[in-house]
Write a sequence for this structure.
């Protein structure tokens, strides 16, 4: 496993249930994943000898976040299979490449254009028109590296703040609901999708997931159809997350972004589905048949961000609350410290 | 955690979900528990310096099997709390002490008598009468250290085989159903019990658990009442397992034995209950409120013994099967390699 965060932690536990031993590779000591894993290597992602040694000790490699250098994956692939493949990393690490890839597949996104100068951004905004969103093409997450611009003043301020010449301008989508589909593809090409989940954000960080999403059946089916198309086209193995915007006033379902990994918006599957997103990912990358995506019950998941984790004593008194603490040593504002899932088996 | 088997493994994973880091202490390397744990110490249970060092590095200690020497627990208790307490170990390590303890509480067991010679056994069998069961008082599990005797010839053969002068003679209970109750007691004295589960054995090893047990409500209530009495009287903290015999022709519910730990007959709680036996034990020993024992659905659990584990590829194709592999390196006949739980959420 490349990466040692909470996604790695939960994947490692899912792997253990199936009898696998997980070896964590990441630069950070005291990371959440290795607390529950068989072994750990602390080294940088560009440390080729360390990567080669690691690759020699494991049977299959996966990753828990998408900002792993492609060269890292390529170094490992020489001796050991890596799932998902590096192609999807290349695509998803660059917002412009990703949008091009999706649109080439006939998937609708927000209108967009890559720009490298303020003048070009001004130009592009004549077409896309305000309000719009400026994003750095690489290394953005949880709202970092992006800004909403409503006018020229915003644009100038945003351009200075982002301080990059690799920027994408996207039309602002005034959506009603954001949903995501967690799609899984096995080594044999079998594809399954969890039912779409509805996601609500606070301060650009996922706050609440409602599963299943409160959307019409046609939207549900269309979202699953599009996620299936994407995961198939990219020859993907593992769990792929596709985020969509749903708007009453917009006939099109628009993809916001894809993530080549298990996802915060899929944590509810641990309690609510027969196989969780984590187990599904492990099954896929290990060449096992995919698990069942049926519901045991409706679920709500909320993140415990920063000092939210201090609510844990209260939450532990709530019989329907499944509390997950990520074992992080330090509470920091904005840091994902854990999550809670409420399961309602009586609402199946 | 003293002990590194599958019970320790599953407790360690439950602890991790709540954010705790588990340190495994056991003599065996390559044990199932440390694969998913933060740290491990390999040392003998009578290695006092190693025990003291271990105790100094942890906040609370528990154990996953009852044949830990009482002196081990006492050495740790000098600096660090151990739950459950050593009193229950003393009681449950000796079948005679255990039966005396239970009968002193007014709990009914099989008729029994401790014997130290063949002549005494012959004598006792005049009262208890054939068929009966001879058991060594200490270190028996999964049918080891016991023999059914139907006549004098059996008795002589059993006496030679057991080769011990600390033996208990028990009347043979011709039961219809064996059930167990997993009782939990918190540090504050709060007590909860999972609904009784029905256990079927093969070759003296648990083969199938059916939850809830197919018994009358009065028997269910009486079993829970007795388990509650036992766990309270012994000032216990954690999960205590109480096994009962249920016979149509016997008005009494009889306790077979108690185990001061989570139990093979409680594995179904992982999928079928809001809090599993493992989470409940961790909550109790860490001073947290107990979790909810309600059912999400009916369940059946079967052990994967020895080469049963080779059925795993088939089981992974069964959408309702939750497969647990314990990560043991070697398949051996009679060895518990994993288990499977089938959950039926439509039968709540």
């Amino acid at each position: 496993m490349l990466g040692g965060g909470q996604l790695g932690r939960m994947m490692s536990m899912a792997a253990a249930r199936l009898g696998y031993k997980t070896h964590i590779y990441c630069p950070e000591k005291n990371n959440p994943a290795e607390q529950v894993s068989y072994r750990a290597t602390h080294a940088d992602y560009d440390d080729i000898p360390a990567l080669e040694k690691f690759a020699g000790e494991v049977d299959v490699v996966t990753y828990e976040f998408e900002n792993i250098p492609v060269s890292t994956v390529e170094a490992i692939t020489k001796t050991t299979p890596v799932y998902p493949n590096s192609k999807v990393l290349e695509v998803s690490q660059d917002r412009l490449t990703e949008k091009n890839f999706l649109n080439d597949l006939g998937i609708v996104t927000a209108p967009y254009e890559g720009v490298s100068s303020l003048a070009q951004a001004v130009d592009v905004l004549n077409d896309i028109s305000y309000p719009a969103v400026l994003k750095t093409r690489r290394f953005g997450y949880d709202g970092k590296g992006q800004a909403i611009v409503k006018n020229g003043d915003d644009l100038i301020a945003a351009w200075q703040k982002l301080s990059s010449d690799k920027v994408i301008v996207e039309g602002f989508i005034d959506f009603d609901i954001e949903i995501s589909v967690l799609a899984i593809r096995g080594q044999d090409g079998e594809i399954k999708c969890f039912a779409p989940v509805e996601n609500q954000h606070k301060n650009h960080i996922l706050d609440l997931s409602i599963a299943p999403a409160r959307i019409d059946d046609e939207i549900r089916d269309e979202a699953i159809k599009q996620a299936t198309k994407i995961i198939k086209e990219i020859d993907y193995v593992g769990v792929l997350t596709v985020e969509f915007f749903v708007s009453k006033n917009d006939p099109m379902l628009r993809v916001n972004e894809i993530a080549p990994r298990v996802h915060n918006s899929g944590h509810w599957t641990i309690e609510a589905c027969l196989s969780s997103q984590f187990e599904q990912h492990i099954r896929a990358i290990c060449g096992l048949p995919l698990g069942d995506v049926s519901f045991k019950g409706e679920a709500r998941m909320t993140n415990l961000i920063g000092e939210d984790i201090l609510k844990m004593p209260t939450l532990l008194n709530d019989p329907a609350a499944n509390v997950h603490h990520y074992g992080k040593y330090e509470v920091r504002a904005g840091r994902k410290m854990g999550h809670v899932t409420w399961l309602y088996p009586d609402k199946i």
